[in-house]
Structure formats: structure tokens, C-alpha cells
């Protein structure tokens, strides 16, 4: 399929269109505003009149439909629409706006903050599960992908059409929507950039139901905002992605090195040496990526990829140099695999193909992240504080936990190649991303409230007593943060200000809303858990399990428990399987 030509409207900025009445909502006067029950009834009438498929609380599969990925945070939408056409999406948005209800899209539904069920009770959810087509233009190698496609199906779909590949995450069940519009990190990202960086066009439905095709030259403000803050600006029903030729071979490597945690000094020394290696362009190239995993069981492991590398040279030179930072490993391996086989290996042997409907994966957890910077390598004092906390408190934690430390930056990383103002994803000096994650032993409720302060302390230990400018990875949503803290950690003041100006122009009534969406900080600045819903903790009456973290304490979440249907999307007991960026 040829890439769509930009609409010939002659507008270079979506803001200009305000003067043309673009945001006058049809139907608005037909549906009076009222209480929650009245609004729900209004939207049901509106959806029925416009033949938009939907489910509500009277539907037989309602409980399954609204069950979130994170069972700790459960919200009840007014309705869940199941559009099959772009017009259905437009009509659903207009009906919601007319009824005074907020809208959130659901692509794969993996939001750690349950924003794919609204982040509060009474929202309108637009499920994109029927938008699952995948086609690759053999001339341009641009893939056109529906907004409800999951990563495993995406990988198989584009590989089957000319052996194409993308730098997306490793959990097959994650949807393209939140993953690609808020970053999207995978093992190929140091070589090819973030998933977001492959977007060359988007079909987007805006807050008034208008359908546009946006690129760098058509509606550039929307193109900027959708790549980093998509959930606040529109619903992407189709992505146009510049694919890469899949490498003929990928070297996957791993090592179990529990002796690293024999003492704080050993752990600090090992990490410092590895950090020096990652910043040295004479020793590491951007076709190499790696991550570290540790947990409450005392596991410490390293794993990664080397794309299109010589097996003998890597085994005899490069891998030993990486391992030289650590004590002798208990075990290690290097294996040469094909592209799809390497993706399977990264998911601990799970299946790439995911059912188009009926996907059912859950966990019960709280997680945060820290994004460090290339320009400010982690210091001895920071690492000492972090590993001291792990060794002193980590073994006696109230529930299972793990940390994954991914190399986003380092020498030559294409994650940091774009300019900070090229998209709303402006964090282009990332080095490490720490994902600190605490969960219930069986991945089910009830949630133990003691998990929350433990994970908070893991995060704060890294920045204790320092003024380092840490950030947060957008796809790892921390619902305990206020909207202001989330905005500053995820975007920074300059990017957020630009996004806010676009938001006020294209969605002044905040139709697209969640507790941390653009503009939410200008409303009532409260943590997302304060918006009704159910928190499945051992203290059922509490809607928030911790006080607001400090703005200097970065956030984010991590990987996940069983993805269901045989998928393993989070590491346990020493296994490393990163979920590189999730749905909102």
C-alpha cells in the first residue's frame, strides 16, 4: 500500500485551523449534561443512533472487557466502544464530548496506571482491537499498521513481507498505540532509535471527530505532539512506520553473576566499570545493547544483543571485555539466532503471535523508573546508596520485587540522535533506565500496601543526597505522581509548555484525558489514584497507597507478570525479559 499523501488543506499549523471553526462539535446541543448516570444514558443513545458498536454494564462480557492489566487499579468506564471503521471512532468521540465524558483509547491495554480503562470511573474507552491490519509497501518499505496491532503480530507481519523489522519492545502482547506514541524501546533501539522515531505518518482522529493524516509537513503540530504525548491529542487509528531490513543474525548473550552482590563495594565497582565501557566509543558500538536484572532472590544477571556481529570475535573479544567488569559468572552463553528467533528468545521463549481478541494478561503491582543522563554518569555515592538499600533491605522486602537497568544511551546510541525538539519525546540524553517493580507473589490481588514505600525507597536511594537531574520514561507510568510531577519528569518545562499550547488549541475541553494527560496539571493537581475506581490493596478503603513523591524522585514502571497464553513478560527469579515500553 502506498503511503497516503498529506491532505491538501494548505495548513501548516493545526492552531491556524481554530479560526476556521474546526472544533465546533456536532451533536453537542442534542445531549444535555447531567449526572454520571444521565451522561452514560446520553452517550448510549448517541452511539446507538450512529451505529457505533459498544459494551456497557449490561453486556455479558463486561467484567472481562474492563478488566485492566494492573489489577491494583480498577476503574469502571461508562462504555467501551468497539469501532470497526474510522467513522465509528469519530462518532464515538463526538458522542462522548457531547455527553461531557472523557475519552481514552485502548490499543493493547497494558497501561500500568490503568489509563486504558480511563484512569477514573465514567470515561469512554475506544478499543482499537478491530484495527489490526499490517501491510508493507515494497517500494518505500513503509509499513501501514492498524492502531490495535500488538507487537508480536507486528513483528511477524512485517517480517513476512520482505523480512522487515522495527526497534519495538519484546513483550508480544503490548499494543502499538501507547508503545509507539510514548517512546518504545527495544533491543534494536541503540542501532535504529526508538519505535517512535520510525513514525513517518499517522491517521489521527481529533477531539471534534475530524480525521486527519499527519506527517512532518502536514499538521506538524499534531505530528510533534502525537510522538510523545499521543494519549492527550488524538486517537491514532493507523501508523506509517519506516521499517528496516532485518539482520541475518543476532547474537544473544547472557550471564548470571550473583557474586556481584557479595558486597556493596563489589556491586558499585562492577557497575562503574560497565558504565565506563558503555560510554567509550572505542569499545562499544550501537549494534550492541544490554541490560541488568536483579531481584529479592539475590539474582544478578546481564543480557543483551549484538546485531550483525561476528560470532567468533564477539565470543573471544567483546563478551569477555563486558564480563571483565564483574566477578566470575556462574554461567554464561552466546547464541546466534535469526531475527524472529531472537525476539522469541528476548521473551523467554514465548510465542510472538497473539490472538486478535480475548487477550488476557494481568499483574498486581506498583513500579517506578529513573532515567539517568549520558552527561551525568552515576556517581560512586549514588551507586553506593542504591546497592546499600538493595543489600540491606531488598532481601527482606514485603513482597517480590525486581529491578531492570536498561542501556538506552551510551556511545553512539540512536535513541539520543534526534534533537530534543524534534518530537514531544524530548529526553535525548538518556543513559540508563532503572525500572523498580514490586508485585504480589501470585500476580493477583490483594495488593500489599507495604510494596509501595519499598519501591519508592528503591527509586529515592539512587538520588539520595544529590541534585542530579533525573527523569522518567513516559511509557512506564507511575500513577502515584501528581500531574505536575509527571509532566516535569516526563517532559520538562519547555516541552510541556509547547504541548500545553497545542492542547489548548486542538482539545480545549480536554476530551482526551487521564490523570496525567497534558493539561491535567492545570486542572486539579492530584495523584491519579484519587479519581474514584478501586485500589485492590489490603486497605480497600484507601484510594492512594502513598503520598506524592518528590519531584526529584524519578518515576516509572517496569516489566510485567505472565502475559497469559504462554507469554512471559517479566523476569522472575533471575530471568531477564524486559517489556520495553507499554501501552498507556
Automatic annotation (TrEMBL):
Domain FAD-binding PCMH-type residues, every copy: 73-246
Record-level GO cellular component terms: extracellular region
Keywords: FAD, Flavoprotein, Oxidoreductase
Bias kind Basic and acidic residues: ranges: 575-584
Bias (Polar residues) ranges: 555-565
Ranges where the record places region Disordered: 515-584
Compositional bias segments (type: Low complexity): 526-554
Pfam families: BBE (PF08031), FAD_binding_4 (PF01565)
Any GO molecular function: FAD binding
Oxidoreductase keyword on record: yes
Family the UniProt entry places it in: Belongs to the oxygen-dependent FAD-linked oxidoreductase family.
Name recorded for this polypeptide: FAD-binding PCMH-type domain-containing protein
Source organism per UniProt: Sclerotinia sclerotiorum (strain ATCC 18683 / 1980 / Ss-1) (White mold)
